[in-house]
Structures are given as structure tokens and as C-alpha cells.
């Protein structure tokens, strides 16, 4: 009887080891996705941007002054804000004056544009001498970043891949016609052809970073514009600011 129990125990152990070995076999490898060309990556990024209903952005400029007023007293330095499809934006714009940098709040609701007064901080209509200073032009489908990604890149090349916030991104580089960039940036960018680098998510094709360099501004120290895009599709509420009674 004892011998029989030992045989049963040995059989169970052998069977368990066998089943365990089968369970640990690696699953068949998934069929790899065919590699995309740089143009296909940029095209997918344009489609994703076009479908986005909201995003957060920061813009940093370094180099030659870019004036936003007719008298050339106020120069753009940086901006951070939110964009909501199709025509709403709120942002804080840093302006460089002859005395000190000033942060100005701005809200765009379609054709209505509002800004804070630099000294009091009170909201009012956008000053007329600012013209149509509207950063939302960056995201216009027919003239903005989507247009550049679809049709504006020349000699587009894949530089490599990098991790941003623990996500793999394609790093692409190209040249872009200055006139096309000028249309997308209210004329602030576009002194001749510009160099464009972009970082695009390898899984979601979100553009997370853009670096635009204007070589013709200064060959040794050219002007650069850095755009960082984030919080894609997250809910954002943008309403008209409180306007004090006149």
C-alpha cells in the first residue's frame, strides 16, 4: 500500500512539473507592425491633431524680438494656455517691454478677444493696436500646425527615438518653407526657410514637442521657438472674462 501511494505521489509531481513547464512557455510573438516612413508619421500626427477637441500648450521664444503691437513697444516672450475646438482659447502671454516683462491674460471666443490691463489686471477688449494677435491661428486646420505637418515639410528625416514622460517618441527633422510658417504664426516666424524638429508619440501620434529654428535671423545665434503640447482631449472650460462696467 505504501509503495502504491509513493507511485501516485511521484506521478502527481511529474504531472505538475509538466503542466507548469507548458504554462511557462512564451506566447507566440505578435506580428510586428510595418515601419512607417517619416512622412507617414507626420501625416498621422496631423490627423490626430485635427481630431483633438482640446490641448494644453506652452510656447517659448529665444532670440530676436517679435513685436505684437504697431508701435513695436511690446515683444512676445512666451505663452501658456489651453485650446478648445473649434474657436476657444485662454492663455497667459509674457510680454517684454522697455522696463520689465509683463504677464497678460488673454481669452479668445471666436471673433471676441479679451486681455488684461498690464497695471490693474482688469479685463477688457484686446487693444486695437495689437491687431489680430490670436495664437489660435497655430491650430487652424488650413494654415496651422496641421497644414505644416501634412504639406509643409521638406527633406523630412527620422533622427531617432527618445523617451518623453516614459513614452517612446519619434524624433523627426525637416525644413519648412518660411511663407507657410509665417501664415501659421501671424508673421512672427518665417524669415526665410526654417528648420523644424518634432517629437511624435510612437503609440498615440500626439505631437509633444516642436522646435523651430530661424537660421536667417542670426547664423551664429538664430531665433528659436519651442512648442510643447500636452493634456490632449482633457475637458477644459473657457468662458468670457468679467468686464468691469465703464
- Flag low-confidence runs: 1-34
Overall pLDDT:
83
In percent terms, what proportion of residues is strand? 35-45%
Distance between the termini: 105 Å
* DSSP strand count: 11
CATH topology: outer membrane lipoprotein receptor (LolB), chain A
Report a brief summary of the structure.
This protein is α+β, with helices and mostly antiparallel strands and 246 residues long.
Overview of the structural elements:
Strands 6-5-4-3-2-1-11-10-9-8-7 form an eleven-stranded antiparallel β-sheet. It has one domain (38-230): outer membrane lipoprotein receptor (LolB), chain A, CATH 2.50.20.20. The longest helix has 22 residues, at 2-23. It has helices at residues 2-23, 38-51, 145-152, 178-184; strands at residues 54-62, 75-84, 88-96, 101-109, 112-116, 123-125, 153-164, 167-176, 194-201, 207-214, 223-230. The termini are far apart. By secondary structure, the chain is of the alpha+beta class.
Amino acid at each position: 500500500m505504501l509503495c502504491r501511494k509513493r507511485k501516485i505521489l511521484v506521478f502527481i509531481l511529474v504531472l505538475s512539473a509538466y503542466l507548469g513547464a507548458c504554462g511557462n512557455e512564451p506566447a507566440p510573438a505578435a506580428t510586428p507592425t510595418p515601419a512607417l516612413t517619416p512622412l507617414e508619421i507626420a501625416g498621422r500626427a496631423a490627423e490626430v491633431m485635427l481630431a483633438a477637441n482640446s490641448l494644453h500648450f506652452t510656447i517659448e521664444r529665444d532670440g530676436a524680438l517679435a513685436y505684437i503691437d504697431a508701435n513695436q513697444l511690446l515683444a512676445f516672450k512666451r505663452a501658456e494656455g489651453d485650446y478648445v475646438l473649434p474657436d476657444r482659447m485662454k492663455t497667459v502671454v509674457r510680454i517684454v517691454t522697455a522696463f520689465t516683462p509683463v504677464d497678460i491674460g488673454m481669452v479668445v471666443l471666436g471673433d471676441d478677444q479679451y486681455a488684461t490691463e498690464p497695471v490693474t489686471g482688469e479685463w477688457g477688449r484686446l487693444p486695437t493696436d495689437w491687431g489680430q494677435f490670436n495664437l489660435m491661428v497655430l491650430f487652424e486646420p488650413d494654415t496651422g500646425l496641421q497644414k505644416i505637418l501634412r504639406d509643409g515639410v521638406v527633406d523630412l528625416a527620422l533622427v531617432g527615438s527618445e523617451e518623453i514622460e516614459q513614452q517612446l517618441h519619434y524624433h523627426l527633422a525637416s525644413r519648412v518653407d518660411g511663407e507657410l510658417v509665417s501664415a501659421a504664426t501671424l508673421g512672427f516666424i518665417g524669415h526665410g526657410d526654417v528648420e523644424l524638429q518634432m517629437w511624435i508619440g510612437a503609440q498615440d501620434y500626439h505631437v509633444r514637442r516642436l522646435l523651430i529654428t530661424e537660421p536667417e535671423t542670426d547664423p551664429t545665434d538664430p531665433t528659436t521657438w519651442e512648442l510643447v503640447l500636452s493634456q490632449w482631449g482633457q475637458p477644459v472650460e473657457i468662458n468670457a472674462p468679467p468686464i468691469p462696467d465703464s
